[in-house]
Design brief:
Length: 209
């Protein structure tokens, strides 16, 4: 059983954001951090379940093994943030901007990642089962050994962008949707009908563009 902490390793540099976070942690209420500037914070292992981080600036923030279950991360900035092993089940993260973020072994079960930008993100071993990835940008991301079972991968109008993504060992049973771009599998780079056939061979239901 995972136990989440109540004290940050390092507080955010912005005094207003620090004060709001201190109040939330002291009172046991979800953190109301809309548009908060949390840069400079090390929130490793912190319990931020159901926090409202809509539009927050989390650039470079450490959220390793933090609890962000059901958190609101709409439009939040997480460039180069470290969320390895974080709990993000059912997070509302549409339009999240997280290029280069580390999400290795993160739990993103049923997360809303519509139009999220995860270019170059490390998603190795991540659990994305039942997540919604319509219009998401995963170009250059590493999804080796990730689980995307029963995901919504995109729609013909808003496909999941995969150019340069690594998919070795990814689990895709029951995923449904439409993708664009090429993906690397082992020594092969697959695109177009070849990628569609590979995805179908792993249990995906692919929609025609």
């Amino acid at each position: 059983m995972t136990t989440y902490g109540r004290t940050p390793v390092a507080w955010p540099a912005d005094p207003r954001s620090r004060a709001a976070l201190e109040r939330a942690l002291a009172g046991g209420d979800p953190f109301g951090g809309v548009s908060a500037d949390l840069r400079g914070a090390d929130l490793t292992g912190l319990d931020l379940a159901a926090a409202d981080l809509t539009g927050a600036n989390l650039t470079g923030v450490r959220l390793v093994r933090a609890n962000l279950a059901a958190a609101r991360l709409r439009g939040a900035e997480l460039t180069s943030a470290n969320l390895s092993g974080a709990e993000l089940a059912r997070a509302e993260a549409d339009r999240l901007h997280a290029p280069g973020a580390a999400l290795r072994a993160a739990h993103l079960f049923a997360a809303d990642l519509v139009r999220a930008v995860l270019t170059g993100a490390d998603l190795r071993d991540a659990l994305l089962n039942s997540a919604t990835l319509i219009g998401a940008d995963l170009r250059g991301a590493d999804l080796r050994a990730a689980s995307l079972r029963y995901c919504v991968l995109g729609t013909p109008a808003a496909p999941l962008r995969l150019a340069g993504v690594r998919l070795d060992g990814a689990a895709l049973t029951g995923a449904v949707g439409c993708v664009s771009g090429a993906a690397a599998v082992g020594d092969e780079v697959l695109a177009g009908p070849a990628l569609t056939a590979w995805l179908r061979g792993r249990g995906c239901v692919m929609l025609s563009p």
